[in-house]
Amino acid sequence: QREEEHFERYQPALMTDGHRIEVVANIGKASEAAAAVEAGAEGIGLLRTEFLFLERDTPPTEDKQFEAYCEMTRALNGLPLIIRTLDIGGDKVVPYLPQPHEDNPFLGVRGIRLCLRKPELFRPQLRAIYRASVTGPVKIMFPMIATLEDLRAAKEIAEQVRTELGVPPVEIGIMVEVPSAAAMAAEFARECDFFSIGTNDLTQYVLAMDRMHAALAKQVDGLHPAVLRMIDQTVRGAQSAGKWVGVCGGIAGEPRGAVILAGLGVTELSMSIPSVAAVKAYLRGISHTQAQTFAKRALACQGADAVRELPLP
Ligand code: PEP
Ligand code: MG
């Protein structure tokens, strides 16, 4: 146990010039929190709470959710836990929420849009999160935010729930995964505490390519300069209001993506558990200045292939 603490994966991702990137994990189950810490993650940057709601006949109760979140704060032992509120709709459906047919479910009532229409679903989840927040550093994150009205409406419900419970405020952030949120980043940044860029969805919406479409799979690349420019714009917007930006989409877990993101000014990278140690190790081997130079080159490329061919620092 003692010796384990010296393993490289438990050391922070300090770049050679001292710039630090927080490396955290994406999880979708309570039991994965301990595995994430074990793998070297410095917390959880994205908890996909859908796992509590899928493959069931009824929604989980507030208490059941509270227990799951507490199991995670216990395993994390003081490390941060970003809980994303329910993100269903789109391709994810549950039997107890019969959705009217949608011709374009990815452009329909998904994520926060569904929760704002179903307070009987949204409020118990927020209650469970706020109750768990007194057991560790919990943050709340809303998915699929497209407009300032969505954010304001979600925050208003969260604040009602919080005052009902009489617990202290927690940081509230949004997923930036819809191009409108990236375009309006400066405005959003004034009304929330942090951003986490969901490059999986952002890529599908920027390129207008279904992220699940087999025939398009090779082209739906989060390293496309069009996506990187949206990320750049998002970081600048956040910085104008002094807020921090993370990325929890797939490119955060690739060394190439991680270098570009660090160079663009992203300070937290959230990825699947198996990527944590390798990304930390890669970042430790280069300087932030090198990452910035590389990111500039990537932004200037004409397509994703060109970004993938750039020699890594
Ligand atoms: C994303 O869209 O990039 C993301 C991290 O969320 P999900 O993959 O759960 O949609
Ligand atoms: Mg998403």
Automatic annotation (TrEMBL):
> Where can this protein be found?
Cytoplasm
User: Which domain of life does the UniProt lineage start with?
Assistant: Bacteria
Q: What family is it from?
A: Belongs to the PEP-utilizing enzyme family.
Write the protein's name: phosphoenolpyruvate--protein phosphotransferase
**Which residues of the full-length protein are shown here?**
507 to 819 of 819
